Amino acid sequence: MSQVNYAAMSDQELRQHFLRHREDKAALRAYLDRLSHRPRNVITTVDDPDFDAKIQAAVLQQMQATDNGEAAV
C-alpha cells in the first residue's frame, strides 16, 4: 500500500478516507488529532438557567448549517 498524505486532505476527505478504509488506524489518528486541536466552543454550563434554550439553539444552528451544505464535524 502506498503512503497516504493525510495532511494534504481536507477534513471531509480525511473523514471519508477513514470511513472507506476503517483498518487504516493512521487515518483515524490523523483525523482525531485534527479535531483535538480545534478550539472548543462552550455552549452553556449545567447550572445555567437558560441551559435548555441554549442547547436547542445550538442544535438548530448545527442542523441549519448541515442543510446549507456547511461541513459538520
Describe this structure in words.
With 73 residues, this protein is mainly alpha-helical. It has two domains: 1-38, no CATH class; 42-73, no CATH class. 53% of the residues lie in helices and 0% in strands. The protein has three helices and no strands. The protein has helices at 11-20, 25-36, 51-67. Helix 1 packs antiparallel against helix 2. It is elongated and about 55 Å long.
Features:
73 residues, mainly alpha, 2 domains, 3 helices
Helix-strand layout with pairing:
Layout: H1 11-20, H2 25-36, H3 51-67
Quick gist of this model?
This protein has helices at 11-20, 25-36, 51-67. It is mainly alpha-helical.
How would you name the oligomeric state of the polypeptide chains in this document?
A: single chain
Strand content: under 5%
- The shape is elongated
Order of helices and strands: HHH
Rg, alpha carbons: 16 Å
Q: How many beta-strand runs?
A: 0
Please give the count of helices. 3
Sheet having the most strands: none
How many separate domains? 2
User: How much is the average pLDDT?
Assistant: 90
Q: Give the class from helix and strand content and strand pairing.
A: mainly alpha
Distance between the termini: 28 Å
